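To: structure subgroup
Subject: Chain for Friday's discussion

All,

I'm putting the inputs and outputs inline so they're searchable in the archive.
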Amino acid sequence: MPNGKGAIVREKIKQLYTVERLSPQQICAQLGLSLQHVCNVITHKFEAVPPHGITKQKYEQMLANGCAICGKITTNLVVDHNHQTNQVRDILCYSCNVALGKFKESPELLTRAIRYLEWHLASSNR
């Protein structure tokens, strides 16, 4: 999709997601966009309608609680969701959301990263 048609692309993504109820993966396949781009539009660009089918009240409550991982309350919070099922998990700051993505949302990789950090912390104290 050409960059000059960004608003048209965003509206098409919103239509496919809210009206036709396509998953982000289906939207990617149909429009030839990256999953990150589609999810950014879905989670960041819904001013009137909270993303992923949650109620406005629930969305505002999640925003007030801040990031579910680090606790930061910022204007840069996103609704975290399972990319396979589209099920909402919680709200995260941009940094924590990206970190989960970098670890491929894998508990095993995150556990290994924690062990790595703990081992190096312990060895530096010896």
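Points worth raising on Friday:
The CA atoms of residues 40 and 113 lie 26 Å apart.
Residues 1-49 form one domain.

D.
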